[in-house]
Model the fold of this input.
Amino acid sequence: MAQTTHTSTGHAPAEHGGGFPPFDSSTFGGQLLWLAIAFGALYVLMSKVALPRVAAILEERSNRIEGDLDKAAKLKSETDAAIAAYEKALADAKAKAQAIAGETRDKLAAESDARRKALEADLNVKLAAAEQQIVDGKQKAMQNVRGIAVDAAAAIVERLAGQAPATDEVEAAVSRSLAQ
Done:
């Protein structure tokens, strides 16, 4: 046995006539009324519930972005101030280091100069003493040379002449010879 399917209205599908209901001109008036009611209800629902929520979310998001931008600007200015303070401290430290290095260099140069002058003075004293020793040695040597010259001249004259000359005459002759 074949069963026929009934719709909720109780009519069989084949008994329904006319085509697609929204295009049925006999129902245009009711459809337009329900369209106006649904549109109005949707408009009221959107304008009173959904759109204020969306607007509140957008406003909250805008406020949060603005707050984050303000916070970022504040942090940037603090960072810039910290960088400036760091650069100033670094410049001060460099200047202080250069000043200390200059003072140390000057102090070491003064100490070195003082040591050099002390050494030069000591060397000058030693040089003067050495020169005096040379002069004394030269004088002693010249005295010895004079004595040797007198003895040699006396010996030469004695050998050549056969008799010893007077010591005074030999010394006078050697003095004249050395003076020239």
Observations:
- The helical segments are 28-161, 167-179.
